Fold:
Amino acid sequence: MKNRSYPIDAVITWVDGNDIQHKEKRMKYGNNAMFKAEDVAGSTRFTSVGEIFYCVASIHRFAPWINKIYIVTDGQDPHVKSFIEKNFSRQIPIEIVDHKTIFKGYEEFLPTFNSISIESLTWRIPGLSEHYIEFNDDFMLAAPAMPEDFFTSDGKVVCYGKKYSSLLVRISRTVKRRWNGEKKVTFKETMLNAATLLGERWFFIKIYHTPRALLKSIYQEFFNAHCDILKKNISYRFRSHKQFNAEEIQYMLLYNSKRCILQSAHENLLYIKPKRKVRYTQKKLQLFEKRESAKFACINSLDNTSCEIQEKIIAWMQQRIGVKKKK
Structure:
């Protein structure tokens, strides 16, 4: 089933931090202080326990209208194609995109280990459609989704987020504990930085942990006109509190031009935080079972949980999507 009027692609950013070569590169460019800071370069930022398989499988199961799936990696291949072939009769085309491709012209900033920098450049994927949906590898669809869940029939973008006071974040940043004298890198901080960059003092759009609908042309117009801003943002090999969230730039521009609809994700988002307690996981999964229509799931830092919890969550993902266990 194709989208009724225009193609919509999916972009997934992924890395296998367990890979020896990738570890060696991180060690070469990072330092112990960075590796101890989970918000900057902690192991959980890179460790993969197979979430990518379920992310891709969920798109096949619940959004078969997607035109093409691009997986952005650092010289790696998650080998999802054979997994998809075993589980789905119809395959959405999948293309692996190396960091070198989207960083063309900015090779001096490679290798990068920074999701903020990478997400600032996904719009540069060759052949990417104007309308695309960006996934982190720990995102998945959890129920049938339609193009209208991301792009409205009158051409607006759906952002799962809400207006949030900039003042609250500015106050909290003054009292939050610092690590080695540095501010912590938080999702809210990078969104606030983006809004501030655009001259908005009083609010920003707090984006939820859901797949994000984006327009390639918005990035092209803004970053082509502000090359210095883009260059500075992608210059950090590891995450920094000085960076801005590129998606926030897009949503603020669209919202201010009345081309973006803000929608709550409360009823549609199944979210698990990294915890080791089995009881917490069981309660969450029981809640998830009752919310059959919830369309999005985010399994955050699954590697930080015990093997028992990992098995429970993976079993739930397999049951929800209807796929066989990867062997």
